[in-house]
Design a protein that fits this description.
It is a peripheral membrane protein. GTP binds at residues 168-175, 249-253, 313-316. This protein is of the alpha/beta class and 361 residues long. The protein is built from twelve helices and eleven strands. The chain is elongated and about 65 Å long. 38% of the residues are buried. It binds guanosine-5'-triphosphate. Guanosine-5'-triphosphate (GTP) binds next to helix 6.
């Protein structure tokens, strides 16, 4: 789910007297701290970085299978529309025309659709593919290649606290996602503080407060206050308490509401005054059912804020999924997580291979 940044051992600076060298015990290369892929307490060497906490245990595998089947169910409409094209089909212009239509219907947009079709035609010619099943496999591979640059592990521990600002249009799933992320982080031993930066809607503030009480997470909140001030206070509080992660919720807004976009920029600036380099993550939450408009949202929020990552929610609804191809082609902001429901385990890291598997079956 997350990887954790581990500080390298501090190297003495020039002013510090050099310690008397002690010959290091010779280690075989496989045990060398630098080349070690993970921390092994028995071996007594420090971890390489970043350190992944994922383990393929039996319950984890079962959870993975359940996640995949629900992701497949969510994207089943697109998957059915694409897969049917390859059943007993001849590889001719009709197939490419139908594929073009299906990709556009799946919200892939003109650019990504044209790119995939051109690449597929080249692949069919170069590899002399003769049957439709092989063409489908080639399309899958091309889609994975297209989406893979969007994969990025979410890293914690590089800053104390790691400050995250979460934005998005109304109802995209920001608050729900913050709740799920907070629970995942707590499960990984991280202390979390939330800021109710949605100071417009009393209900939104209360939603976060109630959630915080239930889950033992401190929530910084002030009624009718400047959201930038609440965010600043949260960062100060996080620094003072030594909290690992501060997540700042913001009120939903449309990118066309320019004064509200300017307000987001102000929140971001003020967070930076509270801590140098913060926010370390500026995230946009997107409702996966928004279709091609999602791309417009990514562009507008990225232009205004310089996004570091995306979270795509509600891929369990009527989402078609192709918009990720459009994002990959036109504005490749990393997709940290995707969501397929309201439970905590319904939010998982984005994995291009899994996603395409769900999309193309
Ligand atoms: N089916 C489904 N519903 C979701 C998902 N994520 C969030 N929701 C629901 O979407 C609705 C809106 O979620 P919120 O978290 O309140 O959205 P928000 O972006 O904070 O909303 P505003 O504060 O009004 O801008 C809620 O009913 C959530 O339960 C998801 O992945 N799948």
């Amino acid at each position: 789910m997350f990887s954790f940044f581990k500080k390298k051992p501090v190297t003495p600076d020039a002013a510090t007297p050099a310690p008397v060298p002690v010959p290091a015990p010779a280690l075989p290369p496989a045990l060398s701290p630098v080349s070690s892929p993970a921390f092994d307490p028995a071996a007594g060497h420090p971890p390489a970085e970043p350190l992944s906490f994922e383990m393929e245990t039996a319950p984890r595998l079962a959870a993975k299978q359940s996640w995949m089947s629900r992701l497949k169910a969510g994207l089943s409409k697109t998957s059915a529309n694409l897969s049917v094209l390859f059943v007993g089909a001849r590889i001719d212009d009709d197939l490419y025309d139908e594929l073009e239509g299906a990709l556009l219907m799946a919200d892939a947009g003109i650019d990504a659709t044209q790119y995939l079709l051109d690449a597929l035609k080249r692949r069919v010619k170069d590899d002399k593919l003769l049957d439709a099943a092989a063409v489908k496999v080639a399309l899958k591979e091309l889609m994975i290649d297209l989406l893979r640059p969007l994969e990025k592990g979410f890293e914690l521990g590089r800053h104390q606290p790691t400050v995250m600002m979460i934005s998005g249009v109304n109802g995209a799933g920001k608050t729900t996602t913050i709740g799920k992320l907070a629970k995942h982080m707590q499960a990984h031993g991280q202390s979390v503080l939330l800021a109710a930066g949605d100071t417009f809607r009393a209900a939104a503030r209360e939603q976060l407060m109630v959630w915080g009480q239930r889950n033992d997470v401190t929530v910084v909140s002030q009624a009718s206050c400047d959201p930038a001030a609440v965010s600043y206070d949260a960062v100060q509080s996080g620094k003072a308490k030594g909290t690992n992660v501060v997540m700042i919720d913001t009120a939903g807004r449309l990118p066309t509401q320019l004064h509200l976009m300017a307000e987001l920029q102000k929140i971001q600036r003020v967070i930076g005054k509270g801590m140098d380099g913060a926010p370390h993550e500026t995230l946009l939450v997107i409702d996966g059912n928004t279709g091609q408009n999602a791309l417009a949202q990514v562009k507008a929020f990225d232009d205004a804020l310089g996004l570091t990552g995306l979270i795509i929610t509600k891929l369990d609804g009527t989402a078609k999924g192709g918009v990720l191809a459009a994002i990959a082609r036109v504005r490749p902001v990393p997709v940290y997580f995707i969501g397929i429901g309201e439970q905590i385990e319904d939010l998982q890291p984005f994995d291009a291979t899994e996603f395409v598997e769900a999309l193309l079956g």
